[in-house]
Write a structure and sequence with these properties.
Radius of gyration: 21 Å
Number of strands: 3
Protein name: Olfactory receptor
Organism: Thamnophis sirtalis
CATH architecture: Up-down Bundle
Structural class: mainly alpha
Order of helices and strands: EHHEHHHEHHHHH
Helix content: over 70%
Distance between the termini: 71 Å
Oligomer: single chain
CATH topology: Rhopdopsin 7-helix transmembrane proteins
Strand content: under 5%
CATH class: Mainly Alpha
InterPro entries: GPCR_Rhodpsn (IPR000276), GPCR_Rhodpsn_7TM (IPR017452), Olfact_rcpt (IPR000725), Olfactory_GPCR (IPR050516)
Domain G-protein coupled receptors family 1 profile: 39-288
Number of helices: 10
Membrane topology: Multi-pass membrane protein
């Protein structure tokens, strides 16, 4: 049995062995990555400089956009590098680092989503105390707590990887060094890693999900008490984009990390991983831009102001 320190790198199976398909995938994922960066940077910019968007909801949205940039940057640049060079490898140190930052950013993101749910709860269910409960200091503490929880989540799952041992097979049947695919290669008993993974998912993931769920139970209960149909629609529209983002993120993420790691589901694993780690960070700013009137107005104002055609 070879010790894991003797393994310098892992081979990534990737998405396809066909060079023409790889070239197509490189262009496709490059476009997605650039749209992700551009879209989230625009959200950060417009929520930073537009006076009407200086509220807690858009403060959290700005940090969600930053988390999306970090989240996408963990795997996509390495994927693009492997596609363009045709050398599908990742070092052992890079594998551990990728897992740590993946867990850190995904955990920070779900807790930021929980903070946004709490913000909507206070705004809709207790509007008279909104300015008291959602102060600038409180918002900063919630964002700081989100990244702090992300750090703990990342460390909890990255440190046990140092005890793994591998035999002759060092081929990861995935396009990135995700933990379930990595653990499947270990020839040493890795039950502790699976236990830590499941416990941390339920502690960090389930706690943030339940917090979001409880917030929306109260929100929906309050909305249903509004007599006017127009009033109900207006209030619900303020949190509909957030619900869509939460649904996309939780459903795919929980399924990827809690389902059995079977060979027959390998292709499905890749599709799900692409959805939540590559497509979701790109879709989030699009969803918020299309569903949020304040964001749309601010974007029109911003780009209209700097439009060289309308302002010669």
């Amino acid at each position: 049995m070879e010790n894991q320190t003797e393994i310098k790198e892992f081979k990534l199976l990737g998405l396809s062995k066909d060079p023409y398909i790889q070239d197509f995938l490189f262009v496709l994922f490059l476009i997605i990555f650039l749209v992700t960066l551009l879209g989230n940077m625009v959200i950060i910019l417009v929520t930073r400089i537009e006076f009407t968007l200086q509220t807690p909801m858009f403060f959290f949205l700005r940090h969600l956009a930053f988390a999306d940039i970090c989240f996408s940057s963990v795997t996509v640049p390495k994927l693009l590098g492997n596609l363009i060079t045709k050398k599908k490898t990742i070092s052992w140190e890079g594998c551990i680092s990728q897992n740590f930052f993946l867990f850190q950013t995904v955990c920070a993101e779900v807790f930021i989503l929980s903070a946004m749910a709490y913000d909507r709860y206070v705004a809709i269910c207790d509007p008279l105390h909104y300015t008291i409960n959602m102060t600038k200091e409180t918002c900063k503490q919630l964002v700081g707590l989100s990244w702090g929880m992300g750090f703990l989540y990342g460390m909890a799952n990255a440190l046990p990887l140092l005890n793994l041992q591998f035999c002759s097979d060092n081929t990861i049947r995935h396009y990135s060094c995700e933990l379930p695919s990595l653990l499947a290669l270990s020839c040493k008993e890795n039950i502790i890693n699976y236990i830590v993974l499941l416990i941390s998912i339920f502690i960090f993931g389930l706690s943030s999900f339940l917090f979001t769920l409880v917030s929306y139970i109260y929100i929906i209960s309050t909305i249903l008490k509004i007599n006017s149909a127009e009033g109900r629609q207006k209030v619900f529209s303020t949190c509909s984009s957030h619900l869509i983002v939460v649904g996309l993120f939780y459903i795919t993420g929980f399924f990827r990390y809690t389902k059995p790691n079977l060979e027959s589901l390998m292709d499905l694993d890749k599709v799900i991983s692409i959805q939540y780690s590559i497509l979701t960070p790109m879709l989030n700013p699009i969803i918020y831009s299309l569903k949020n009137k304040e964001i749309k107005s601010a974007l029109v104002k911003l780009f209209g102001k700097y439009n060289p055609i309308s302002n010669p």
